[in-house]
Structures are given as C-alpha cells and as structure tokens.
C-alpha cells in the first residue's frame, strides 16, 4: 500500500453517508455514532480500530508501491487441474519501497486490485478552458473555504463533491453558481427553483465554452468567475498493470473486460474490488470479496469468456440506450435498474452468497431521497429510523 494517500477531505468534512451505510457488517460503529453523519477523523479512527481488532496491521506493507503486475503463464502441473487452466494465470508483482528505494518481486496466484477510483481527477472537455484567466482547480485539491472569501465561484458538476463544497464554501463567497450536467440526478436545479439553496447560490446549465474570463453556458447565459472548481469526478487509472494483463480503460471511465464490474473475463485470477460507483463505498468489499473467494477456491464456476463478454456489452449498451453516458459504465445510481441494491442483488444471486447489504441499501435510499428533497438539511435526520421525519 502506498501512503501518498489521497488528501480528499477538508478540515471540516462531514461524511455524506450515515454510519451504518459505511460500516463493515462484523464491526459496528460505536452506538453513539450509529445513524449519524460524522467528521472524517472519526471514520479514520474507525478504520484503524478495525485493523487493530482483526490484527491486520501485520499484513499491511505501508510505504510500498506496487510498481507492476505482469501475467505469467504457468505450465499445467497435471492435466485437469482447474487451478492451472489458462484462465487462472499467476502474476509477477514488483513492489518498490517508497522510503529508501529498493524493489522486490514475488509471484502471486491471484491479484485483487483495490487501488481506489477517487483520486485521479477527470476534467470535461470544454472549448477554451486553457484560456481561462482565473483560478481553476479540481475538487480533489479543494481544502480551505477562506481562500475564496469574497470571490465569485463556479462549481462544475452536480453530485456529491459539488454540494459538499457548496455547503462548505457559500458563506465565504460573494456569488456561487453550480453548473449542472443535463443529468441532474439530485435535482439541485429544482431545489434552487424552490428557494432551498442559500441566497448567494444558484444553478445553471453546463459550460459550452470559456473565453478568457467569460464562461458561456449551453443556455446562452454568461458568468465571469474568479475561480472554477471542477467537481467532475475521477478517472480509473491502473498504471501498474502491464500490457500482459489485457486491461483497458476507455476514456478513463470504463474498465474492460470486467464481468459483474469486478472479474477479468479471461483471467479469473485478476479481480477489481470496489471499482463500482455506488454509494456503498468501502463496505462493498464485504460483498465482492466472498464472491472473489468462491471463484478462487473453485466452488463457483464462471460462464465462458464469450458469455461473460456478451453480458458486459449488453449491460453497457442498455445503459447508453436508457440515457446514461459512457462515463457511467460502472455506476449504480440510476433507478430502477442500476441502483445499489440492483448490483448487490445481482452479485448475491449469481454467487450464491449472503446479502449483507440490504439494510445498507435501504439506508442509502432513505438518505438519497432526503438529498434529492433538500441538500441543505439531509444530514439533520437520524437514519437509524429508516424513514426520516417528513
Ligand atoms: C471527497 C470524497 C468524499 C467521500 N465521502 C465519503 C463518505 O462520506 N462516506 C463514504 O463511505 N465514502 C466516501 N467517499 C468514498 C470513499 O473515500 C471510498 O469509497 C473509499 O475510500 C474506497 O476505499 P478503497 O480502499 O477502495 O480505495 P482508497 O481509499 O482510494 O484506497 C486505495 C489505496 O490504494 C493505494 N494505492 C493506489 N495505487 C497503489 C499502488 N500502485 N501501489 C500501492 N498502493 C496503491 C492508495 O495509496 C490508497 O491507500 C468519499 C470520497 C471522496 C473523494
């Protein structure tokens, strides 16, 4: 594990999910925190406590960068040994010590890629962006609201980063505009129209072009911001995967070929944990890892590579046909078919494993409903009660 851990959290950052949506099923948050939105430091404490409780620290190699993963072909030791089939190659992993240098190579029977997907910024392609005369940054680099005191700020994007930064920032800025994609999943435009957003915040359409200090939006409106903050999401990036892994990432948003958004359809010993974009975040590993283990111990047979690829393509094309964008290839926030619970149900029924995500999905749905109603107040409810007060 490399420790250039992504400093995505501001000093004041409060989680955007209630604790029981985030917690691991076998390690509850302390009872006084259940159902609440908590400061990020308490999440860090929780993760450290988890590592101590299960005595995990001895397994973690800190300050160690996975520099490369290469597929190696092994000769079958005996014919008919399922663990030696071409679908189950081994992997040569080279690591580099971040402090003091030095590298190490080791062969593994399987690789589970858990390198995260919220640290390499994605920028949309806006004509003239390079000509912008003010300050531009990605939400990944946003920290201190005081830096924007008295400024006119444009937030691009209408999802979690945009509303979190808006809430943190609006009282410092003179004017704050949230520029929404055509898919306004959280209904921030509607919330603005209803007067639910702060007095100096409004929403608008997405930029069509930038020319010097002027941003022109698709509806023809213009704005001259001092600062543009791109809340436009992240890209998948696996620079450590050698070409022999046969993994492609198209436009930073679609990893191929991943069956159930997780398993390499040709090399079953290469899997990707928690790459699905759905608000279950790190607890999703509790669903995906039992699935992975069943494949690795041979107790769950996978369909043929062709069948898996067919399902992968069908899922992608159905998404596009239903109005999603190519960037949503692994996203589960679109009702009714691509919701967090749909992904969990699919994995559970395919793998024959316990569904430990049901309550979490209900909790997320309840929170999501409140976010869509009023982004300024959804954290006020206690989500221990699955249906928050109206
Ligand atoms: C602004 C923001 C707010 C969020 N708020 C919430 C929230 O309120 N609630 C919630 O549940 N989730 C939240 N999330 C999402 C949450 O942070 C992620 O779901 C979670 O961190 C995913 O865990 P992970 O272990 O899969 O990946 P990560 O936490 O990204 O961990 C990946 C690790 O892999 C390491 N790594 C990467 N490449 C290499 C390599 N080549 N070699 C070695 N190590 C490597 C990284 O250094 C990192 O330590 C938020 C995310 C962001 C960006």
From TrEMBL:
Transmembrane segments: none annotated. Its EC number is 1.-.-.-. It holds the Pfam family FMO-like. Gene3D superfamilies: FAD/NAD(P)-binding domain. Keywords: FAD, Flavoprotein, Monooxygenase, NADP, Oxidoreductase. Its cofactor is FAD. It is an enzyme of class 1 (oxidoreductase). InterPro entries: FAD/NAD-bd_sf, Flavin_mOase, Flavin_mOase-like, FMO-like. Belongs to the FMO family. This is Flavin-containing monooxygenase. The gene is LOC106812299.
């Amino acid at each position: 594990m490399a420790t250039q851990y992504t400093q995505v959290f501001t000093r004041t950052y409060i989680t955007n999910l209630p604790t029981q949506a985030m917690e691991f099923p076998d390690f509850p948050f302390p009872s006084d925190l259940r159902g609440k939105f908590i400061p990020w430091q308490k999440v860090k404490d929780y993760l450290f406590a988890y590592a101590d409780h299960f005595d995990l620290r001895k397994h973690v190699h800190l300050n160690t960068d996975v520099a490369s993963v290469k597929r190696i072909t092994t000769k079958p030791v005996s014919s008919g040994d399922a663990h030696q089939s071409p679908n189950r190659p081994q992997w040569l992993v080279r690591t580099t010590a971040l402090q003091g240098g030095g590298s190490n190579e080791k062969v593994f029977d399987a690789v589970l890629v858990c390198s995260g997907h919220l640290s390499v910024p994605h920028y949309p392609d806006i004509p003239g962006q390079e000509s912008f005369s003010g300050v531009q940054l990605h939400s990944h680099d946003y920290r201190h609201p005081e830096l924007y005191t008295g400024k006119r700020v444009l937030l691009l994007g209408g999802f979690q980063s945009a509303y979190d930064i808006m809430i943190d920032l609006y009282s410092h800025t003179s004017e704050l505009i949230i520029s929404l994609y055509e898919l306004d999943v959280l209904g921030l435009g509607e919330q603005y129209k209803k007067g639910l957003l702060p007095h100096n915040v409004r929403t608008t359409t997405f930029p069509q072009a930038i020319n010097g200090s002027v941003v022109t939006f698709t509806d023809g409106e213009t704005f001259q911001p001092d600062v543009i903050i791109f809340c436009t999401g992240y890209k998948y990036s696996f620079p450590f995967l050698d070409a022999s892994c046969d993994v492609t990432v198209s436009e930073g948003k679609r990893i191929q070929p991943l069956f159930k958004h997780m398993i390499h359809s040709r090399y079953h010993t290469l899997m990707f944990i928690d790459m699905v974009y759905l608000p279950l975040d790190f607890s999703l590993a509790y669903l995906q890892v039992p699935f992975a283990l069943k494949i690795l111990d041979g107790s769950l047979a996978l369909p043929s590579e062709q069948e898996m690829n067919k399902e992968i393509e069908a899922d992608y094309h159905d998404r596009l046909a239903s109005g999603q964008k190519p960037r949503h290839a692994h996203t589960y926030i679109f009702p009714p078919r691509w919701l967090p619970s749909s992904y969990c149900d699919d994995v559970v029924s395919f793998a024959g494993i316990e569904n430990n995500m049901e309550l979490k999905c209900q909790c997320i749905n309840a929170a999501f409903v409140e976010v869509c109603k009023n982004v300024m107040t959804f954290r006020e409810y206690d989500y221990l009660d699955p249906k928050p007060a109206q």
